[in-house]
Amino acid sequence: QVQLVESGGGLVQAGGSLRLACAVSAASQRTFNNYAMGWFRQAPGQERGFVATINWRSGTYYAESAKGRFTISRDYAKNTVYLQMNSLKPEDTAVYYCAARFAPTNTYYTNRNDYNDWGQGTQVTVSS
Q: Which of 39, 29, 60 is nearest to 112 (CA)?
């Protein structure tokens, strides 16, 4: 089990950018290297939905709504995963959650039930 702490959320105007970070603690660097990481989001009254995932070899996969605008990446030395969000829209407003799954495979995990550990979330608000 690992602990996840998100940061980087905030208020931004439509068309702007934000970079979210997810620090993974209670895991050695060797352990972090074997984790698949994901970003999900939840708007009020909606279910938590998939945004992006990165596997242990830094292969990436995105939801259609994120393709071309968001980029997920990971820094193995810092045990941190990032979500760079550009061209933000009001419909991107949500609480964004980081998730982790021990998975030294090339599989892309897009279902929230695939993940074992979650952060507390960070609010992203995009004004029109």
A: 39
